[in-house]
Design goal:
Elements: E1 5-11, H1 18-26, E2 33-39, H2 46-56, E3 60-64, H3 71-81, E4 87-92, H4 102-109, E5 116-126, E6 129-132, H5 143-148, E7 159-165, H6 166-169, E8 178-179, E9 184-185, H7 190-202, E10 206-217, H8 234-246
Parallel strand pairs: 1-2, 1-4, 2-3, 5-10
Antiparallel strand pairs: 4-7, 5-6, 5-7, 8-9
Length: about 260
C-alpha cells in the first residue's frame, strides 16, 4: 500500500539553507506525496526561492503569510491545506531530510494501526560536519508512560522526524494552540503544542523510528534554542512555553479517527 504524504515546511528568513531543504523534499524517490510550504513573511529572498520551486514542481504549493507568524500557527495552516487522509511530515526551512528514501521508509512503518511517529536526528554544525546523539539518548516512550498517559511529566522524546495523520492533528482543540499569557498562538516550542495532544490521543498507535531521518541545522543564529526576536535567551522562553503546555488538560485515548 502506498500512503499519501504531505510534507509541510515552515520557516522564516532561511535563504542560506532553503535550497538544501527544498532539494531534499522534491527529490524523494516516493511518488505519492505533496509539498506545502508556509512562508512566515520572510524578507531575505526565501520566498523567491519557494516560488521558483513551486513553478517547477506540480506537487508543490507555497503560501505566504501577511505578517510574521510562528511554527504553531504555520504548521496548523499547512496541515489544514493537506488532503484528507494524508500523513503529515514536518520540516523547517533551515533543516532538511538526509536522503531521498525517507518517505519510502515511512511508508513501510505506516500501517492502519500507526497514527504518528517520531525519531532521532543528526545536527549540522557547519562545513561538512554533523554530529549524532549517543545510542539511547532518544528512545521510544515507555509502556508505563503510554499506559498512564503521563507524557506531560515524562522526559520529552518526541523529536524529529515528526509525522502524523492529518485526522489526528485535526482533533486538537484550538485553545491548546494559544498561549494564555499573550492570548495568541504560541511563538516557540511548536512541537509541544501539537505533538503532546497527539501522543495522548494515539496512545500505543505511535512509533519510534531509530534511524536518522532528519538533519537539524545548528548554525542558524535565530533558531529557537538561541536568541529570540527580543534578544532574550531562546531556551528560557521555550521552557516557559513548554511548562504552559504541560499544565493544560490532558487528552484521552481515542479508539478511532473516524467520525
Amino acid at each position: 500500500m502506498k500512503n499519501h504524504f504531505t510534507i509541510v515546511g515552515v520557516g522564516y528568513n532561511s535563504a542560506p539553507w532553503i535550497r538544501m531543504c527544498l532539494d531534499s523534499v522534491v527529490n524523494q524517490e516516493y511518488d505519492n506525496y505533496d509539498i506545502i510550504m508556509v512562508d512566515a513573511f520572510t524578507n531575505d529572498g526565501t520566498y523567491d526561492v519557494l516560488k521558483e520551486y513551486e513553478s517547477n514542481h506540480e506537487n508543490f504549493t507555497c503560501v505566504r503569510k501577511t505578517n510574521r507568524c510562528f511554527q504553531t500557527e504555520n504548521v496548523k495552516d499547512g496541515v489544514h491545506m493537506a488532503k484528507p487522509g494524508s500523513i503529515i511530515v514536518t520540516v523547517d526551512f533551515d533543516d532538511w531530510l538526509p536522503d531521498s528514501g525517507v518517505l519510502s521508509r515511512l511508508n513501510e512503518v505506516y500501517s492502519d494501526d500507526v497514527w504518528m511517529t517520531y525519531g532521532t536526528y543528526a545536527e549540522y554544525v557547519g562545513g561538512d560536519n554533523y554530529q549524532v546523539f549517543p545510542d539511547g539518548f532518544f528512545h521510544e516512550h515507555t509502556k508505563e508512560t503510554i499506559a498512564t498517559n503521563n507524557y506531560r511529566s515524562a522526559r520529552w522524546l518526541t523529536s524529529h522526524l515528526r509525522t502524523f495523520r492529518k485526522e489526528l492533528f485535526m482533533r486538537i482543540k484550538e485553545e491548546d494552540f494559544i498561549d494564555p499569557v499573550t492570548n495568541s498562538y504560541y511563538d516557540t516550542a511548536g512541537d509541544f503544542t501539537f505533538m503532546m495532544p497527539m501522543l495522548e490521543m494515539a496512545a500505543e498507535r505511535q512509533r519510534y523510528i531509530p534511524d536518522v531521518m532528519y538533519v537539524y541545522n545548528k548554525t542558524n543564529p535565530i533558531s529557537d534554542d538561541k536568541k529570540d526576536v527580543n534578544g532574550s535567551v531562546g531556551s528560557i522562553h521555550q521552557e516557559r512555553i513548554a511548562d504552559s503546555i504541560r499544565e493544560k488538560t490532558k487528552y484521552i485515548r481515542l479508539e478511532s479517527l473516524n467520525g
